[in-house]
């Protein structure tokens, strides 16, 4: 359920991104996503119960869905036509690099161990 909360949140975030982007604009939607990421990170690091952890993961998912839908469009609208193709690949490259780095950090934290090490990996 903890992992699924992110997936459900990203589904909701992706579906709502179009309407939110039309009402708040691309930059406004990205600002909202950034605030959700920040709030979710604080909640993930603090999470006193499993319920709070699930809610924080859900918020992360909503932010992922919103940002994932809006960032490529925003880049395509802002980039010069000659550089648009190259710049449009950057979000996916950054996502893949971030996933790889999160695996590396999780491995390092798990090797150090400790009762609260899961908080470092999630928050």
UniProtKB/TrEMBL annotation:
Subcellular location, record wording: Membrane
Alphabetized Pfam families for the sequence: Sugar_tr
The answer, when asked if Transmembrane helix is one of the entry's keywords, is: yes
Q: Which UniProt keywords apply?
A: Membrane, Transmembrane, Transmembrane helix, Transport
User: In the UniProt record, which is one GO cellular component term?
Assistant: membrane
Mark the transmembrane ranges: 27-47, 54-75, 95-118
Membrane topology reported for the UniProt record:
Multi-pass membrane protein
Q: List the Gene Ontology MF annotations in alphabetical order.
A: transmembrane transporter activity
| All copies of domain Major facilitator superfamily (MFS) profile, residue ranges | 1-123
Q: Give the family from UniProt.
A: Belongs to the major facilitator superfamily. Sugar transporter (TC 2.A.1.1) family.
- What name does this protein carry? Major facilitator superfamily (MFS) profile domain-containing protein
């Amino acid at each position: 359920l903890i992992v699924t909360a992110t997936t459900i949140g990203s589904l909701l975030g992706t579906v709502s991104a179009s309407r939110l982007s039309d009402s708040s604009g691309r930059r406004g939607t990205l600002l909202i996503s950034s605030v959700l990421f920040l709030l979710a990170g604080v909640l993930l690091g603090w999470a006193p119960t499993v319920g709070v952890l699930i809610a924080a993961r859900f918020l992360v998912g909503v932010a992922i869905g919103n940002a994932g839908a809006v960032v490529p469009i925003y880049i395509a609208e802002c980039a010069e036509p000659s550089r648009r193709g190259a710049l449009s690949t950057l979000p996916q490259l950054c996502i893949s690099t971030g996933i790889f780095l999160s695996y590396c950090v999780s491995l390092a934290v798990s090797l150090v161990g400790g009762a609260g090490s899961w908080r470092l990996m999630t928050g």
